[in-house]
Specification:
mainly alpha
C-alpha cells in the first residue's frame, strides 16, 4: 500500500493539560471586567451543538451607529412623507371641485374624497410608484379629520373642533 510521505511533517503536541486549561479559565475570568463590551444587542444562547462547532467560533460583530437610529435620517423621511401626504390631500380636493354637486354636498363629500384617495393609492401607483401610497394616506388623514370635525366636533366635551369651517373654505366657489 502506498502512503503519503511529507517532507517536513508537523509535530503534534501532547495538548494542554487540565491544569493549563484551568489556569486559562481563571485568567479570563479575572480579566472579564476589563474587556470592552459591544453595544449591539445580545443574541440568544445558541444550542450546545453549535457552540461545539469549531468553524462557528469566528463571529462577525458590528458596531451600530447610534446617530443614524433616531437622528436626521428619520426626520427627513417624516418630512418627505408629510409633504407627499399634503400633496395628495390637495390633489383630492382639486379633483373634488370638478365633480357634480350631488357628490360634493353634505356628508357625501367625505365618501367621495375617500374613494378618490383610495383610487389615488391604487391606480396612481402605476404612475407615481410608492409615492402614491403616501399621498393617499395623507388625503385620507385630512378627509377623516374633516369628517370627525364636522360630525362629532360639537359633541366632544372640551374640544376645539366646532363645525366644518375647513370644508367650507376648501369647497367654496370663487366669487366674481
Amino acid at each position: 500500500m502506498s502512503s503519503l510521505m511529507l517532507i517536513n511533517p508537523r509535530k503534534r503536541g501532547a495538548g494542554r493539560s487540565a491544569a493549563q486549561k484551568a489556569a486559562t479559565r481563571r485568567m479570563l475570568a479575572a480579566n472579564k471586567s476589563k474587556r470592552r463590551s459591544n453595544p449591539s444587542p445580545r443574541k440568544a444562547k445558541r444550542s450546545s451543538a453549535r457552540r461545539r462547532n469549531p468553524s462557528a467560533l469566528h463571529r462577525i460583530r458590528r458596531r451600530r451607529n447610534p446617530i443614524a437610529l433616531g437622528g436626521m435620517g428619520g426626520i427627513t423621511g417624516m418630512l418627505k412623507n408629510g409633504a407627499l401626504g399634503a400633496g395628495g390631500a390637495i390633489a383630492v380636493n382639486v379633483v373634488t371641485n370638478y365633480l357634480p354637486a350631488f357628490a360634493t354636498t353634505g356628508k357625501m363629500v367625505y365618501v367621495t374624497r375617500t374613494v378618490l384617495a383610495l383610487a389615488l393609492g391604487t391606480v396612481g401607483k402605476k404612475v407615481l410608484g410608492n409615492s402614491a401610497r403616501a399621498m393617499a394616506e395623507g388625503a385620507l388623514v385630512v378627509n377623516f379629520h374633516d369628517a370627525i370635525n364636522t360630525i362629532a366636533g360639537t359633541m366632544l366635551p372640551g374640544s376645539q373642533l366646532h363645525g366644518n369651517a375647513m370644508c367650507e373654505i376648501v369647497n367654496a366657489t370663487p366669487r366674481s
